[in-house]
Specification:
The chain is an all-alpha fold and about 80 residues long. It has helices at about 5-20, 30-35, 40-55, 65-75.
Amino acid sequence: MVDTYEEYTRHMLGFKGLHLDDDLPLPSVPEHIQCFTKPQPSVLESSKDVLQSIKSLIPLVPVNRLKVDTEAAKRYKFNKL
């Protein structure tokens, strides 16, 4: 059995290994991996009511990033090879 997440991760690592110095955006997820990660339409339709009740119970609120995160990122910046 093929693990699609592992296949995608190896694909991205190989891409970044070949393009170390380039600031290219990552390639899109291949079609054969997308078809394994999307749920069937029947599952989406049957779970719609449950997901709506969860959304009403646990509302998602956008938050600002903490200043500590950006300071830590500056402090532990990796040097380019």
